[in-house]
Amino acid sequence: MRVEEVAQQGHPVQVLSELSQDCDLLAVGTRGLGGFAGLLLGSVSRNVISYSRCPVAVVRGRQE
C-alpha cells in the first residue's frame, strides 16, 4: 500500500474531491467540534463522501 500525504490550499471539499480521482481510498478525519455532539460526520467529511471519486473512510479519533 502506498500512502501519500498532500498539503494544498483551497476549499477542503473541492481539493479532496479532485485528489480522489487518482486514489483507491481517501481517508479523512473528523474533528467533531460542531454544534451537534451526537452527529458522527461534519460538513466537510459528509460532502467529501458525496463528491469523492473513490471510496472514503472517515476516521474518528479516540474519545478521551
TrEMBL record:
Superkingdom of origin: Bacteria
Matches recorded under InterPro entries: Rossmann-like_a/b/a_fold, Universal_stress_UspA, UspA
UspA domain boundaries: 4-60
Family: Belongs to the universal stress protein A family.
Name under which the protein is recorded: Nucleotide-binding universal stress UspA family protein
Organism name: Nocardiopsis metallicus
Lineage of the species this protein comes from: Bacteria, Bacillati, Actinomycetota, Actinomycetes, Streptosporangiales
